Amino acid sequence: MARPIVLTTDFGHSDNYVGIMKGVIRKISPFADILDLNHNINQGDIANASYNIETAYNYFPDYSVFLCVIDPGVGSERRAIAIETENHFFVSPDNGVLSFILKNENIKSCVELNKSDYFLKEVSDTFHGRDIFAPIAAHISLKKELHELGTPINHESLIRLENTAHKSEEVIHGKIRQSDYFGNLITDIPADWLEKKKKN
Amino acid sequence: MARPIVLTTDFGHSDNYVGIMKGVIRKISPFADILDLNHNINQGDIANASYNIETAYNYFPDYSVFLCVIDPGVGSERRAIAIETENHFFVSPDNGVLSFILKNENIKSCVELNKSDYFLKEVSDTFHGRDIFAPIAAHISLKKELHELGTPINHESLIRLENTAHKSEEVIHGKIRQSDYFGNLITDIPADWLEKKKKN
Amino acid sequence: MARPIVLTTDFGHSDNYVGIMKGVIRKISPFADILDLNHNINQGDIANASYNIETAYNYFPDYSVFLCVIDPGVGSERRAIAIETENHFFVSPDNGVLSFILKNENIKSCVELNKSDYFLKEVSDTFHGRDIFAPIAAHISLKKELHELGTPINHESLIRLENTAHKSEEVIHGKIRQSDYFGNLITDIPADWLEKKKKN
Fold first, then answer.
1. A55 neighbourhood in chain B, CB within 8 Å
2. ipTM metric
3. Half-sphere exposure of residue B98, counting CA atoms within 13 Å on the CB side?
4. What is the C-alpha to C-alpha distance for residues B11 and C14, in angstroms, rounded to an integer?
5. What share of chain B is helix, strand, coil (3-state, %, to 5)?
6. Is the CB of residue C45 less than 8 Å away from at least one CB of chain B?
7. Which residues of C touch B181 (CB under 8 A)?
8. Cα–Cα distance, C161 to C188 (Å, whole number)
9. Which end of chain B is more exposed for a tag (fewer CB within 10 A), N or C?
């Protein structure tokens, strides 16, 4: 049985880009379950993408493969990476979108995706979701080992999102990670800072 | 073979909420077909949700499980219910969204979903779609009997939507149930009222 | 194993229309993979639909069935057609949306879909996606031969989109086929016209 693949992108729903990625996956991994987490991540907003995956991944089956294509650095030198934890797999650009994994999970394996045998034959400058990330996720769904798909790297070298929240005696500063459809605003301010505030 | 699950919500597509519900379903019922009917129901609009399901359910396979999460009363005392008819299953809050079933179908079984063994371990105040309704739909897709998932109730006790249409000699009043993408407005005025009108 | 079905429509995501088509497909073909290519084609914009399918179809598995419902002529005399090429199947109204196939592929079979045994029992005036095209695609996914589903026609008789691009010494004229979510505008001007221009 193939591992499920869970998609998160900032591609929206007005183009054929998400559909094409599913075609690429399906061509390599004919039976993997393909599930959409969210394709309306704010364009290029890594903190927003990170929030969406962090609050969702534990609700998915063990060994799901999370494919995250929020990639403001596409075409630049940023690395493509894959991470294996105790219970899941994650594939994304190395831009901080998976910071929460490094904080919450034991890392079993971490690789730089640099073996072009597992990419599509032609790799464009602008659509690595189709040409690199989708094929890699499909191969992981087929139980290919991470060390076959890339070169092991030290996960300490991965880019991390900085938490912007800080506080003085009177003021707490933070950023909004998610502004949802129901009007809720979710910030990066730790909940216990607010509880302490309440007790004063 | 697992029964298909058909989703209708007012969650939109900009968050990870629908995706998380699919993860919850997939974790319990690994092979059920999960189909989206509509996630752009007007927020909290029970008549709109009801219209969307009423006009669709007969096009789906027998024994499909319709999961309907339009829930303006989440966090209040409204009941969670499941209904079995001759050919389908329906899971929703008891808020009138399934009124048409009571009118159109023979009810084989109707239960209040009050057995927390079948919910997620932690039930939030605001996301019963994830914590209660999705797991229940997944268990029904696995052919768990309704009387195992809840306490039988008399379907006469269910909340029904009132049809607001009424008429005098010269005027017909109704409400719009659906305003579609192509500009069509569908009302709750019975078609035969208009036909009679035409004949005058 | 059933053939995958890939959907392209201009139905948007605010109604239950796409969901109903999936129900119809699933009722006939219980195991076919159903993949969304794009449901936000500009309403009635055949060139836009054509662009979306032309740039995508080679990324999908062999023998995928592309179901394309962009149908400004629904209710008029336009034909419904199905085409088989070396590697894929296409089902659509005969309105030019598949012109690129005639240019790029060998046509193995081409039929007019006029056998109502394979439609839903009641065919509406306005929703042929549900009543004609979805059931036909489902039957093709089950490996029904095209000549059983319709009457063979000469593919030379199919309607073709005219390419509107033209040029004089100083000016190139073209139309935008796709305006994407990232702000890219893609025209119907052949790339080599621009390269020639560059060399001047």
1. 16, 20
2. 0.94
3. 31
4. 12
5. 30, 20, 45
6. no
7. 11-12, 14-15, 17, 43
8. 11
9. C
- Cα distances from B170 to residues B166, B196, B197, in angstroms, run 11, 12, 10
Q: Would residue B175 be called left, alpha or beta, if left means φ above 0 and alpha means ψ between -120 and 50 degrees? A: beta
C-alpha distance from A137 to closest chain C C-alpha (Å): 15
Residue ranges of the alpha helices (H) in chain B? Answer: 17-28, 46-54, 99-104, 128, 134-141, 146-149, 191-199
pLDDT tens digit at each of 200 positions of chain B: 899 999 999 999 999 999 999 999 999 999 999 999 999 999 999 999 999 999 999 999 999 999 999 999 887 889 999 999 999 999 999 999 999 999 999 999 999 999 999 999 999 999 999 999 999 999 999 999 999 999 999 999 999 998 889 998 889 999 999 999 999 999 999 888 886 545 44
Per-residue pLDDT of chain A (200 residues; tens, 9 = 90+): 899 999 999 999 999 999 999 999 999 999 999 999 999 999 999 999 999 999 999 999 999 999 999 999 887 889 999 999 999 999 999 999 999 999 999 999 999 999 999 999 999 999 999 999 999 999 999 999 999 999 999 999 999 998 889 998 889 999 999 999 999 999 999 888 886 555 44
| Cα nearest neighbour of C40 on chain B | B181
**Is A4 an interface residue toward B (CB < 8 Å)?**
yes
Q: Does residue C15 sit at the B interface (CB-CB below 8 Å)?
A: yes
* pLDDT one-digit tens code per residue, C45-73: 999 999 999 999 999 999 999 999 999 98
Q: How many A×C Cβ pairs under 8 Å?
A: 60
The minimal CB distance from A4 to the residues B11, B26, B43 is found for B26
Sheet containing strand A65-69, strands side by side: A34-38, A5-9, A65-69, A89-93, A80-85, A107-112, A151-152
Contacts of C42 in chain A (CB under 8 A): none
Q: What is the DSSP string of chain C?
A: -PPPEEEEES--SSSSHHHHHHHHHHHH-TT--EEEEES-PPTT-HHHHHHHHHTTGGGSPTT-EEEEE--TTTTSSPPEEEEEESS-EEEEESSSTTHHHHHHS-EEEEEE---GGGS-SS--SS-HIIIIIHHHHHHHHTT--HHHHSEE--GGGS--PPP--EE-SS-EE--EEEE-TTS-EEESS-HHHHHHHHH-
Q: DSSP 3-state assignment of B93? A: strand
| Per-residue pLDDT tens digits for C2-34 | 999 999 999 999 999 999 999 999 999 999 999
- Cβ-nearest to B23 among A1, A40, A56: A56
CA distance C25 to C8: 14
Residues in Cβ contact with C123 at an 8 Å cutoff, skipping those fewer than 6 apart: C116, C131, C132
Do the chains contact at C40 and A130, CB–CB below 8 Å? no
Of the candidates A13, A59, A180, the beta carbon closest to that of B15 is on A180
